[in-house]
Amino acid sequence: MGNTxxxxxxxxxxxxxGDSTYYTGISNDVSRRLEEHRAGKGAxxxxxxxxxxxxxxxxxxxxGTALKYEIKIKKLSRKKKEELISNPSLxxxx
Length: 94
Fold this sequence. Notes:
The chain has 94 residues and is of the alpha+beta class. The chain has helices at 30-38, 63-75, 78-86, and strands spanning 10-16, 22-27, 53-60. The mean pLDDT is 92.
């Protein structure tokens, strides 16, 4: 009788920075990742841009899917990102 490993859920997220810019990333623990960003670990882009707040988060089925969405979101214009933030169901249409 073996234990079945628990698959970690991945998520794609958007952070709004103190300077009103957006940062998109992925994680299997968004709360932990946000705290890392706030502590200055990880993405250099976010350093000195606080306060940092998660304004969009969507769980997906796999790391690969999260990466795919991250790339697509990063290519969006600010206006399109704001449409996605207002209507998360648009993610499935990407």
